[in-house]
Amino acid sequence: MTEAVLRLRDVHRTTDGVEILRGIDWTIENGQHWVVLGPNGSGKTTLVRIASMWLHPSAGDVDVLGERLGRTDVRRLRTRVGFASASMADLLRSDLLVSDVVMTARNAALEPWWHEYDEADRESALRALARVGIPHLADRRFGACSSGERQRVLVARALSTDPGLLLLDEPTAALDLAGREQFVRMLSSLAGDASTPPMALVTHHVEEIPDGFTHALLVKDGLALEQGPIAEVVTSATLSECFGLPLTLERQRGRFTAWAD
């Protein structure tokens, strides 16, 4: 049986009396790369925050890398889960060196002076930057990078600790067309690398699904509408139901395009 790196069972989340997630079951296994797709307000970000252990469910079980949320030290376990989002860039000082942004992930820190680091830590950061194609940015200030470069830096940060699971929450939200395409191409390259851990990418645009991703979870109104192999789940019919609009979907060269009928 293939080992599960993430397993959610009957997960609910209620905030201020509003039920955001309603009975979600979801399993990610080794060798799988998932896209979590759905309209704004469907619960995608809440779902990935629970999966990354930055948020607890109101009910249900969450198992991450073989450990149960609520029965383990999440501070330690979080270092084994890579997490990146468009909003994370706002938490980091703009004058930090890119290499420091990546290196501090070892301790899930935002500042290099919070802990001590050595040359081995810096070398690990440089390897992570090379893996996402930007080793030349190591000594640049984080704030001097473009939006696309900053998102690559955050993925390098997430990868630098050799995580068992990589979660990406709408990382292309602030990118222009060129930045988005470069970022999606980078994710496709990671998906084709056997050493990359299982990934889950949250988005509401089918155009942002990288070639090489294997599975999809469609979320609507806090419910798991459909899930499974991407070719079976991402269709004109399922997208139309998910987004509440008649849509036509095409796939060319591994990439999706959708438009309203």
How would you portray this structure in words?
- The longest helix is centred in the C-terminal third of the chain and has 15 residues, at 177-191.
- α6 (177-191) links the parallel β7 (165-169) and β8 (199-203).
- This protein has a domain at 87-162.
- It is 28% helix and 30% strand.
- α5 packs parallel to α6.
- It is globular.
- It has helices at 44-51, 74-78, 98-103, 119-131, 147-159, 177-191, 230-233, 236-243, and strands at 4-15, 18-29, 33-37, 59-64, 67-68, 81-85, 165-169, 199-203, 215-220, 223-229, 247-252, 255-260.
- It has a six-stranded mixed β-sheet with strand order 6-7-8-3-9-10, sandwiched between helices. Strands 2-1-4-5 form a four-stranded antiparallel β-sheet, covered by helices on one side.
- The chain is of the alpha/beta class and 261 residues long.
Topology:
Layout: E1 4-15, E2 18-29, E3 33-37, H1 44-51, E4 59-64, E5 67-68, H2 74-78, E6 81-85, H3 98-103, H4 119-131, H5 147-159, E7 165-169, H6 177-191, E8 199-203, E9 215-220, E10 223-229, H7 230-233, H8 236-243, E11 247-252, E12 255-260
Parallel strand pairs: 3-8, 3-9, 6-7, 7-8
Antiparallel strand pairs: 1-2, 1-4, 4-5, 9-10, 11-12
Helix pairs in contact: 4-5, 5-6
